[in-house]
């Protein structure tokens, strides 16, 4: 079953590569419970098939980085990029995209989270195995308020501009 507007996000775990050690977060990959991360927060979440892939790197991530201040001005606490990659790859990609401290790059290494959302996709024909569908969502205290899922290989509704317009 695919998650829909009005549903609560399923709990799961996502990993993040932490660049600077702080109390409670060590340097390197740290695993977080989704339910803890969303509690009391408004999250602009976007997910995509893979780090360093053409559309993801050239269009999807840059849009959210570019519009980060506008999301914050409209009450969004955090912007998340979720992908079925490991935390090391996601950390390297965040650095490459100059997004550290702007967008949280959260790894769903085994696709467990996107499977729980019903938004996984089979990319085996591209040699990539199970990945995430391309989508964006507005999450408010764990509840899905907006959901934009792309059809096939398109990039029309999960971009930053669409989700930002839905915050009006």
TrEMBL record:
GO terms for cellular component: cytoplasm. One of its GO terms (biological process) is cell redox homeostasis. GO terms for molecular function: thioredoxin peroxidase activity. The active site is at 56 (cysteine sulfenic acid (-soh) intermediate). It is an enzyme of class 1 (oxidoreductase). It catalyses: a hydroperoxide + 2 glutathione = an alcohol + glutathione disulfide + H2O. It holds the Pfam family Redoxin. Its EC number is 1.11.1.27. Residues 3-168 form the Thioredoxin domain. Belongs to the peroxiredoxin family. Prx5 subfamily. This is Glutathione-dependent peroxiredoxin. The lineage of its organism: Bacteria, Pseudomonadati, Pseudomonadota, Betaproteobacteria, Burkholderiales.
